[in-house]
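Tokens in:
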């Protein structure tokens, strides 16, 4: 049991690290969009992303739910 919890902790730390990396890039994209007067929301990009990720997962509804939260946070960062 301890080993599994250790593994989960490592995965959680990696997820946080990767999300921080993603959000750093999101901020740069937001700056670019502001500079070039581009709308924050790109619904076709979101749909494409959700479809692509859902195909890779055996729990597509879970992935969609998680990614919708990530995308919402990303859009708020860009504003």
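Residues out:
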């Amino acid at each position: 049991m301890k080993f599994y919890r250790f593994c989960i902790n490592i995965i959680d730390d990696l997820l946080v690290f990767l999300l921080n990396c993603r959000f750093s890039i999101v901020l740069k994209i937001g700056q670019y969009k502001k500079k070039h007067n581009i709308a924050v929301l790109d619904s076709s990009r979101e749909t494409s992303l959700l479809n692509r990720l859902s195909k890779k997962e055996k729990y597509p509804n879970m992935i969609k739910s998680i990614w919708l939260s990530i995308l919402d946070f990303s859009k708020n960062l860009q504003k």
